[in-house]
Specification:
Length: 162
């Protein structure tokens, strides 16, 4: 599904008990956010069932069911970016770096030239693996950053140090 993922998409039914309900808090971060194949954008986990998940569109607030037979789920907190030193950096850390460098190094538009995208990303994560992280991954990451930052999800993540 995604070149920047380390591992396979996660089937939530193995981790979440049936009919678990997730609540929206004012200090939400990327913990409850998920990318679902076949559904555009980032969704919030509304509830989980044995045969799928209820996901909420962050803009419209509409909740709909996504079957585990048809969709794969990738929680944002499980996504990592490959690095040269055979380690991976969590997406949360990369997004935080983008937020911290927003004033000095604003993100380039996602439709920029590949060289510009790679140059920008090398300022954010200097040791990213240039062979495994593709330009399409950088574009997607910039789009996700704008989406989450405009909706206030990244400011809350900065306040919560684990």
């Amino acid at each position: 599904m995604n070149e920047i993922l380390t591992g396979k998409p996660i089937n939530f039914s193995a981790f979440i008990s049936p009919l678990t309900t997730f609540t929206h808090s004012s200090r939400m971060n990327i913990k409850d956010l998920v990318v679902v194949t076949g559904i555009p954008g980032i969704q919030r986990i509304a509830a989980s069932r044995n045969n799928g998940m209820m996901v909420e569109d962050l803009d419209s607030g509409k909740v709909h069911f996504a079957s585990i037979r048809k969709h794969q789920f990738s929680p944002l907190e499980s996504i990592s970016i490959y690095t040269d030193d055979s380690d991976a950096v969590e997406l949360k850390a990369v997004l935080q770096s983008m937020l911290d460098n927003l004033e000095e190094t604003p993100p380039v538009p996602p439709n920029s030239k590949p060289e510009d995208l790679r140059m920008y990303f090398s300022k954010i994560l200097p040791n990213y693996d240039r062979d495994q992280v593709h330009v399409s991954d950088i574009k997607k990451l910039i789009r996700w950053f704008h989406f989450l930052n405009e909706r206030g999800f990244l400011t809350a993540a900065a306040d919560e140090e684990e």
